[in-house]
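Please review the protein record below. Let me know how this chain folds according to its tokens.
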Amino acid sequence: MRTRAVLTCGALALALCAAPAAALDFRSVAENAVILYDGPSSKSSKLFVVNKGYPLEVVVAVEGWVKVRDAGGAFSWVEAIKLTDKRTVMVKVPVAEVRVKPEDSAPVAFQAQQNVLLEFVNVSGGWIQVRHRDGGAGYVKAQQVWGASVAGARLRSGLTGLRTEGNLPRFPSVTSFPSMMFSLRSLLSF
């Protein structure tokens, strides 16, 4: 009986340690306009509409639905088929400087304003390698974007990356996203 209790506690501890790693999974919205719901059903209340490319953190997947967290910290549900593995990050600071190398002293390749979406390429230390849809590429500090975790990316893809050079102008924000709020109740309900 005691052995069973020890094994059960060990399995529970292992599951709790694995849970944060699963929370580091990000996906992007695959379609032009996708509805986020308050539950895993199209009959649930509609909360928000998000644009193509918007990054969402995957919390849990259940029977064709995914519970996600957005850049504002709100939790909601989306149909799994509405998400893509093609990764994007969204600038969360007023202006992010994308540099040609993952170093503070490296020249600036371009600047991106808040809410601009950038294609996620890879991770290099505390930097995220990105590419703008207009062709600019470089490295942005991980703290300046939403949609990627340095720790999660290290676990999945390692630390290698292609270094690129570029000299492009500042890219303005083309879209702004709704700020969303969440309650502890939504965090705890699956």
Residues 88-157 form a domain with the SH3 type barrels. fold (CATH 2.30.30.40). Helices lie at 2-22, 150-157, 184-188.
